[in-house]
């Protein structure tokens, strides 16, 4: 890739190419008859493809090949058709043409190709130009040139763009198409330079400001260069066409007699093709330099550079005939000068002259390489058939004939990319240098190791020698010492034996002493420990003694105290005995008194019972207190005590017996006494004055206890009656509820079927209903539900109490609402009392009915109950009450209720009822 971009860069400027880049040029002379290029897509063309191209290429002899193309007659020719006959006769199959001077004289000429008027552009290109293009793709220089009289079709043949009709494309466009098709954008570059030679001045047609460009020759390669000319890289055919059009627009043209759009300049298109090959280029025997490069450089890219010149010469015509004047005359002179110079060069080349006058004109200079140089050249001469231009046609044909004699020496040009080679070699050198350094280091360390080991060996050797010398010396001395040593040893052994003996004696003595010492020490320590023990025992004895004497003292004082206490106790005992005796006497007295009281109570109860018995057929009424009073005489006409009389009797009992004694009797084990006591308490509770004392003395608790625990139905009924009486008082109501009285009453209501008992329970609950503060608690304890449930016994007295309770409840609730203490749907309705009221409004006795009516009116007063009242049919009932109730106040109340609430009026309207 790097080398590729390098190649591109090197093509941007010829100056750079020729002066700076270190390239090696390999000149190879080849002598091949023809070139064949494998046609592959430009993008697919590969390096190996290029190599194949090069290897397969076969060059021709190198002679300039000349083709003749006959131009179709133009309008002018046709208009002069009658005056002049054609002077040209073609024999394409023989590649010959005949030119007639007159009716008698004609000359025949053979050319490489003859193109008739009808020859297509494609045929002309493929026959005359394509071989040159193929050789260029193979790395050789090539030239395709058109020469001929003005208006004979040079530009048509060479430079026609064929924009409207692609079949009309000329050599330039077709050549570029082939080049693009056979090169790769990856490895190859194609660039162009487009020049015109006008009035002996070279102008860049792509950058027209570059005028009067200078021609030079590469001293090494002999290549002709135009300094400063733009070399524009071309990507594809479209890109080329654009550039060509730019160039055409800048080309100088004028209207001549012969051609209305005559090219007055020579146009030279230079196509630079650079192809890069990579990989193993081993078999290039031609590469002399290869042998001087090591085998490792075999992958160096080889760059093939070739150049294709496509030249559209200006028209060759006789000045007098062309009708040029003034500036155009100047033009014509210059054109003819350059063409004449071209002719001269060709003549010289054809005659193998030593001197070729290429420097006579810039045209010949530019074409130096194309004619007699290293390029493969194809010349297309264009002629007209009209005899009018016999002279020009004849000279053109002669020009072509001479050109056919010019022989070129085709050369292949390859370059090595030395920079890349250098880089690669430098890399190898670096690698080898580092490898060498590494080896040197290894060798150095090996050498050091060896030297160190050698030194060690030498030292070892010296040491060994020393040891050997010493050993030798010792060996000699050893003899003298041995006898002396034996004597001395003997003597020492004897002395040692003596000493050992002495030592043994001393040792045994010492052991004896040590044993003695040990036994003495042992004895001593035994004595000391026994002394210590004795001391300790003494100390303990002392302590015990002290404690005992202390305890003795304490015991003596306690005994004294006890004695005093005993005296005291004895006197106390005496006093207590006296008290006990007195108490026993008192107790006896009280027992007797109690007995007499009990007798009295029994007697009184009997009296009371007799008095309160209700003869059959006579209804009882329940007083506001719930206590039963006889209100009528007995059936037998026997006069009864009236209520004040009873009260007086009870008050008398109360005064005489005392409330606490009576309440004590409630706890009696005797059921009779208990029953009588409950009766008395119940009757006492009917009096407001007694109620407070009964409650204060624990009467309420005792009654609730009996209600809860007694299994006797009479006691339960009487207790309920007593509770009913106590429940008349507001304060008691609070206490009854707080002590669970409502729950007990509700339980009794659900368990009992005795109408008398239920009447007491209903009376008690009805009294509690009269306290609006307790409504919620009463409901929560099941009081309301219990009240309603008792209607099941269908006993009028019970129902009367139930109705009274409802009236009480509804009235109090209504009052609370009015006072703002309560809001919302009635608790009675929640427990389903309303439906019963509506259904039973007219069922019972007057007093019961009044209670129900009142209850209904009060419920209807509450707006929140209105819908329930309507739903239950209560409106109709209210209307009836307002109209039919036997109590005036209830009638009024019902009317008021109906009037006050518009929903009732609406309901009445709906029912079509009037009030
Ligand atoms: N083979 C051909 N077939 C059809 N038309 C042609 C052919 N040759 C030339 N012509 C027509 O003849 C006219 C002149 O041709 P052209 O401009 O190519 O001549 P020329 O030789 O380049 O002239 P000049 O030297 O003055 O530039 C053009 O209109 C061109 O189309």
Automatic annotation (TrEMBL):
**Single GO BP term:** spindle elongation
**A GO CC term attached to the entry:** spindle microtubule
Transmembrane ranges, per UniProt, are none
The Kinesin motor domain is annotated at 63-406
Q: Which UniProt keywords apply?
A: ATP-binding, Coiled coil, Cytoplasm, Cytoskeleton, Microtubule, Motor protein, Nucleotide-binding, Repeat
Q: Tell me the ranges holding the ARM repeats.
A: 657-699, 698-741
Location(s) in or outside the cell: Cytoplasm, Cytoskeleton
Q: Name one Pfam family in it.
A: Arm
Report what the protein is called: Kinesin-like protein
**Organism whose genome encodes this protein:** Apostasia shenzhenica
């Amino acid at each position: 890739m790097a080398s590729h971009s390098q190649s591109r860069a090197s093509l941007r400027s010829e100056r750079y190419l020729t002066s700076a880049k270190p390239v090696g040029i390999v000149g190879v002379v080849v002598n091949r008859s023809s070139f064949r290029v494998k046609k592959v897509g430009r993008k697919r063309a590969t390096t190996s493809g290029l190599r194949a191209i090069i290897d397969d290429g076969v060059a021709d002899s190198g002679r300039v090949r000349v083709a003749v193309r006959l131009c179709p007659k133009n309008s002018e020719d046709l208009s002069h058709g009658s005056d002049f006959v054609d002077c040209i006769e073609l024999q394409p199959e023989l590649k010959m043409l005949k030119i007639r001077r007159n009716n008698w004289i004609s000359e025949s000429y053979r050319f490489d190709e003859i193109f008739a008027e009808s020859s297509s552009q494609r045929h002309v290109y493929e026959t005359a130009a394509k071989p040159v293009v193929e050789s260029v793709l193979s790395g050789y220089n090539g030239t395709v040139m058109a020469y001929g009289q003005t208006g004979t079709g040079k530009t048509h043949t060479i430079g026609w763009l064929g924009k409207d009709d692609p079949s009309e494309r000329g050599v330039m466009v077709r050549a570029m198409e082939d080049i693009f098709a056979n090169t790769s954008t990856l490895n190859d570059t194609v660039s162009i330079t487009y020049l015109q030679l006008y009035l002996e001045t070279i102008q860049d047609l792509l950058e027209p400001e570059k005028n009067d460009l200078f021609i030079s020759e590469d001293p090494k390669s002999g290549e002709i260069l135009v300094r400063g000319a733009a070399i524009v890289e071309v990507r594809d055919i479209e890109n080329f066409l654009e550039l060509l059009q730019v160039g055409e627009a800048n080309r100088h043209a004028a209207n001549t007699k012969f051609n209305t759009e005559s090219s007055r300049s020579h146009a030279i298109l230079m196509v630079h093709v650079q192809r890069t090959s990579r990989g193993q280029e081993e078999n290039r025997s031609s590469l002399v330099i290869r042998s001087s490069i090591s085998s490792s450089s075999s992958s160096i890219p080889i760059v093939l550079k070739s150049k294709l010149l496509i030249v559209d010469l200006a028209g060759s015509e006789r000045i007098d005939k062309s009708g040029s004047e003034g500036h155009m005359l100047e033009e014509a002179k210059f054109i003819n000068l350059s063409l004449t110079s071209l002719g001269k060069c060709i003549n010289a080349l054809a005659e193998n002259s030593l001197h070729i006058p290429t420097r006579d004109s810039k045209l010949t200079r530019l074409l130096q390489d194309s004619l007699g140089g290293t390029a493969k050249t194809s010349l297309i001469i264009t002629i007209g058939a009209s005899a009018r231009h016999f002279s020009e046609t004849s000279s053109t044909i002669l020009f072509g004939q001479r050109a056919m004699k010019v022989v070129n020496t085709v050369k292949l040009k390859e370059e090595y990319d030395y920079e890349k080679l250098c880089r690669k070699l430098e890399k190898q050198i670096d690698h080898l240098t580092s490898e060498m350094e590494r080896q040197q280091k290894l060798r150095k360390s090996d050498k050091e190791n060896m030297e160190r080991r050698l030194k060690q060996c030498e030292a070892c050797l010296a040491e060994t020698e020393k040891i050997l010398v010493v050993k030798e010396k010792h060996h000699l001395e050893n003899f003298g010492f041995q006898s002396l040593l034996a004597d001395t040893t003997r003597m020492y052994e004897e002395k040692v034996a003596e000493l050992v003996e002495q030592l043994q004696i001393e040792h045994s003595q010492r052991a004896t002493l040590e044993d003695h010492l040990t036994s003495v020490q042992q004895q001593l320590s035994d004595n000391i420990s026994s002394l210590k023990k004795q001391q300790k025992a003494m100390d303990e004895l002392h302590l015990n003694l002290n404690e005992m004497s202390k305890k003795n003292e304490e015991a003596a004082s306690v005994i004294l105290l006890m004695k005093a206490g005993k005296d005291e106790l004895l006197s106390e005992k005496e006093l207590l005995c006296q008290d006990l005796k007195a108490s026993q006497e008192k107790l006896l007295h009280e027992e007797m008194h109690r007995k007499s009281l009990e007798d009295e109570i029994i007697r009184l109860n009997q009296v009371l019972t007799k008095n309160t018995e209700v003869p059959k057929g006579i209804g009882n009424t329940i007083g506001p207190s719930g206590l039963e009073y006889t209100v009528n005489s007995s059936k037998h006409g026997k006069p009864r005590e009236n209520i004040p009389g009873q009260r007086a009797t009870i008050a008398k009992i109360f005064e005489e017996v005392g409330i606490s004694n009576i309440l004590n009797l409630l706890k009696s084990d005797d059921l009779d006494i208990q029953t009588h006591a409950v009766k008395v308490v119940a009757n006492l509770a009917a009096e407001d004055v007694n109620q407070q004392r009964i409650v204060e003395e624990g009467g309420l608790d005792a009654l609730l206890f009996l209600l809860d625990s007694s299994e006797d139905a009479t006691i339960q009924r009487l207790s309920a009656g007593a509770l009913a009486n106590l429940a008349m008082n507001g304060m008691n109501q609070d206490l009854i509820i707080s002590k669970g009285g409502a729950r007990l009453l509700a339980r009794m209501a659900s368990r009992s079927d005795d109408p008398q008992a239920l009447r007491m329970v209903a009376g008690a609950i009805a009294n509690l209903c009269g306290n609006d503060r307790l409504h919620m608690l009463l409901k929560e304890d099941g009081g309301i539900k219990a009240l309603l449930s008792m209607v099941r016994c269908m006993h009028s007295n019970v129902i009367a109490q139930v109705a009274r309770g409802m009236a009480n409840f509804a009235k109090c609730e209504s009052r609370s609402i009015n006072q703002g203490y309560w809001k919302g749907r009635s608790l009675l309705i929640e427990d389903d009392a309303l439906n019963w009221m509506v259904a039973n409004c007219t069922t019972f006795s007057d007093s019961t009915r009044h209670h129900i009516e009142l209850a209904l009116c009060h419920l209807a007063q509450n707006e929140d109950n209105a819908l329930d009242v309507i739903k239950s049919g209560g409106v109709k009932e209210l209307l009836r009450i307002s109209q039919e109730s036997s109590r005036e106040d209830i009638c009024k109340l019902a009317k008021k209720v109906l009037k006050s609430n518009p929903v009732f009026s609406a309901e009445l309207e709906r029912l079509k009822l009037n009030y």
